[in-house]
């Protein structure tokens, strides 16, 4: 490494440590750029793929009000994906490349979206738990060091909070509904609790990326810290619903003022992120199908933009 590069890296770290934001035109280490492309694009993929499990229930929503809320939420998720792809593109990679990486299995999306939505209670559990976990992570990312990513988080977090509340409202209705509805709410909690905890990633001591992510202030809290924040916030919500968290080892620890929990099934986690979850194949096949079907829209939009540009030149 040349002395010049060493000095550049030192200046860069000093700038990061001073809580400054890195902008697209700034010099940045290749690894910093690649780390952000990886994380932001996987975040964007998660937002878009996450539309599928919920989209399954638009035509089967129990009321017009419920359908309107679900439509608004799913539309928000598509928008979150677009903000995040735009943020990733400021790092010099095209959206086509990002989608290609997804389709070729070279990029990930959140494991949680590889589970099926079996009934309407799942839509409540996803909003309450999955969006609840996502917003816990995303509130922390509002302070991430890469400017365009941080700014995208502010808009996303506002909408994500609505997502969490609409899910909790569904769970409230069902937990206080008929015995069958209550049973559906408990079953949904049983099936979505552990996949929601997996959203925060491996334990810190197992995470290959966390050290650099924290050093460069891309991550502002570790995987385990964020997971614990989510657990401590969510357990009382389940108690308020009169539902039971599916963890026999869950107990309040007065010494730490936090909940102690059982161990996550990491074999399941690694199986799902390696492509062997219940719905991985379905999610990817659908994404590829609609991406191909939508090619004409992208081509028309690009042609229109080129024509407008030519008229202005
Ligand atoms: N699902 C899929 N992949 C996961 C994962 C999960 N639950 N948890 C970790 N991984 C992957 C990481 O992406 C990384 O893969 P890579 O090395 O191929 O890039 C690998 O497993 C090792 O994990 P690390 O913890 O070392 O990696 P990170 O430091 O990147 O941490 C992360 C993982 C916490 C997911 C981090 O990338 C992050 O905070 N991402 C931004 C938030 C995000 O992507 N949330 C996803 C949900 S978005 C959502 O839910 C939409 C909402 O509207 C419902």
Provide key terms for this protein.
313 residues, 13 helices, 2 strands, 68% helix, binds 3-hydroxybutanoyl-coenzyme A
Structural features, described:
By secondary structure, this protein is mostly helical. The protein is built from 13 helices and two strands, in the order H-H-H-H-H-H-H-H-H-H-E-E-H-H-H. The protein has a two-stranded antiparallel sheet with strand order 1-2. Strand 1 and strand 2 (258-260) form a beta hairpin. The mean pLDDT is 97. Bound molecules: 3-hydroxybutanoyl-coenzyme A (3HC). Residues 38-39, 42-43, 46-47, 50, 77, 80, 108, 110-111, 130-131, 134, 137, 160, 198-202, 207-210, 213, 223, 273 line the site of 3-hydroxybutanoyl-coenzyme A.
Secondary-structure map:
Blueprint: H1 3-17, H2 30-49, H3 51-55, H4 64-89, H5 95-103, H6 120-141, H7 147-175, H8 179-198, H9 210-215, H10 223-241, E1 251-253, E2 258-260, H11 266-276, H12 280-293, H13 295-312
Antiparallel strand pairs: 1-2
Helix pairs in contact: 2-4, 4-7, 6-7, 6-8, 6-10, 7-8
This protein binds 3-hydroxybutanoyl-coenzyme A (3HC).
The site of 3-hydroxybutanoyl-coenzyme A (3HC) has 29 residues, from helix 2, helix 4, helix 6 and helix 9.
